[in-house]
Amino acid sequence: MKVALFLLCISLTLVIIILIVVLSKGNNLLETLSICVVLLVASIPIAMQVVCGTTMAVGAHALAQRKAIVTRLNSIEELAGMTILCSDKTGTLTKNELTIKDPRVLPGFELRDIYLYASLASKRSEGQDAIDHCICSTATSNPTFRLNLDIYEEEDFVPFDPKIKRTEATVRNTQTGETFRCAKGAPQVILAMTEKDETIYDQVSRWVEDLAAGGYRTLGVARTDKSGKWTYIGLIPLYDPPRDDTAETIRKAQHMEVSIKMITGDQIAIAKEVAKELGLGTRIYNSELLYEDTNAANRAALDSIIEEADGFAEVFPEHKFAIVKMLQDKGFRVGMTGDGVNDAPALKKADVGIAVHGATDAARAAADIVLTLPGLSVIIEAIFRSRKIFQRMMNYVTYRIACTFQLLMFFFVTMVSINPKRDFNCGDNCDIPNTFALPVMTLVIITVLNDGTIISIAYDNVTVNKKPEKWNLTVIYINAVQLGGIAFISSIILLLLGLDHLNSNDPNSFLHAFGIPTFSYGELLTAMYLKVSISDFLTVFSARTQSWFWTRKPGKAMIFCATLAMAVATILSLTWFLNVNTNQSDIPNMEKLNWRIAGFIWLYNLFFFLLQDATKMALFKVFSVYYEKKGKDSGFSNTLLTDSFLIFSNTATGGVKRSIVTKRSIVAAQDTLKGTRSK
């Protein structure tokens, strides 16, 4: 919108000046007004939202094919610039496939008892969560005791709530008629329900610490006795193994300069063990620090801790919201993953809310992107693709500014400053106007063909920046102006040479040296139409890269559209038949060109196109040195990623697993794994 507003103001100002100056020369009002209106339409980027929307929609379609559904189109741009991703542990970093490892039972109870009461405190009907399913299936399938849960009738059930961190059931033994309550949940919560016993408290605390150090999540189990008092039975250790691709996914995210922070409700010891196993870092902090009543100094320290942390443990839903907000206040663009109803506020607050596989309807509704495959590797692909989409939008904006600058400045300078009738002698029997202007028809053709070429940017081949993307409008403006400026200057030079070449008795020596016959004024108009058209279409190939134009192959759609546009412009100039001028027109009819003149204009354009590209490279070199000295991020990078970056090693087969990659990238990755040199 800033770019569109900038171009609107510039275009409107210059077109008004053109209108006033040309009318003051006594030119036809209707014709002059028509030229100004078409020039204004051609200069203002009316299609900018359409092209950017189309570009993001094409990317969103590709992401949907890769199991990442975009619910808010603008989130693609924000995902490209995301610097921090706050990720749930369970089900995202881990498999959420729980196994029970050697339950710890207090004196007076047996192994059978802890399985029985934990199963009774679980949801036994449909809709079990991973913990309930693991406990019930293990209890009923254990060959040692094979519990029969059917004899226990559930009278009341309190499901798990993150606030109370436990489940509770009231059950009746249909054989004995005994009614009692049983509960399972966080060990410290279950301990608080029982009568305080220092011996039991110390024993349970030691078990919890030992198991947490090994990466085990523990559940405390208790039941009521005949008097209704809660009795602690023991602990059930649960192990949730990391996903096979999580460690590699984290490494790839870090390589893309996206920091991943683990958010979990588990104990801090468990979180550190899992983080260590994943190579995430062990700077894991307890959520209690978020409750501090901080002054300015403590707040600064807290901000520093949150920024440098690798994760947070023992968090509640409100902590997730607070973490996201604090990181955003520090200037980071934050992504957040979640799956539950309580995650919705944090997902909504985040710049990019991501509902993971299996998320609730509330989480999906609050999220910007919905993943339909488990794990984080899908997010890596989404970031990768979003950065491609961002590059396409940035290339389009650069090209659009360059085209507007060339077209607008060319007509402004020629119509305001150049008077062919006064300043140039065209010889005998030659009547030329006092204002140089191309017919309205040519402007319409240039605009239509140009827009068709622009749309193809949505399908262009682009590179992926290693760093998070961000808009640097200063660089974009200066680069675009130099691209358009060189094209504009070359058009002015050719026009002046052509006007000087109108007199057959005194032709221009430069054009005469190339064997170009003397122009008629109609041929000059056609020649300038061809010059402006071809330079416009060539500029896109320089604007689409931050390196030499040949370093990256254009997309097939772009090659086709640009080639078609240039072919149409050339054929029209060789066979011009679209004269619609009336006798009242101030602009003479255009005349078709011969092959020699058209060929010269092509070579002339190619020379200045190479100069455009060389100037662009020098400009980016200057920017690199400047931002390096300032210690600032320029917003562009020479460190790029290829499609093979999306290939993940498959530990199960010893081969590779592809996400979205070309066959060439697969071969390269396979050769790398084998230790051979890729072709």
What is the secondary structure topology, with strand pairs?
Layout: H1 2-24, H2 29-43, H3 48-65, E1 68-70, H4 75-80, E2 84-88, H5 89-93, E3 99-100, E4 104-105, H6 111-120, H7 130-141, E5 152-158, E6 166-173, E7 179-185, H8 187-193, H9 198-213, E8 217-224, E9 230-239, H10 246-255, E10 259-263, H11 268-278, E11 284-286, H12 296-308, E12 311-313, H13 317-329, E13 334-338, H14 344-349, E14 352-355, H15 361-366, E15 369-371, H16 377-417, H17 420-423, H18 440-455, E16 464-465, H19 473-500, H20 509-513, H21 521-543, H22 556-574, H23 595-630, E17 640-641, E18 648-650, E19 655-657, H24 663-674
Parallel strand pairs: 2-10, 2-13, 10-12, 11-12, 13-14, 14-15
Antiparallel strand pairs: 1-15, 3-9, 4-9, 5-6, 6-7, 7-8, 8-9, 16-17, 18-19
Secondary-structure-based class equals: alpha/beta
Main sheet properties: 8 strands, mixed
Oligomer: single chain
Q: Note the beta-strand portion.
A: 5-15%
What is the class of the largest domain in the CATH system? Mainly Alpha
CATH fold descriptor of the largest domain = Calcium-transporting ATPase, transmembrane domain
Question: So, CATH architecture of the largest domain?
Answer: Up-down Bundle
Uncertain segments are none
Strand order of the largest sheet: 1-15-14-13-2-10-12-11
Write out the CATH superfamily name of the largest domain.
Calcium-transporting ATPase, transmembrane domain
Rg of Cα set: 35 Å
Mean pLDDT comes to: 82
The residue fraction in helices comes out at 40-55%
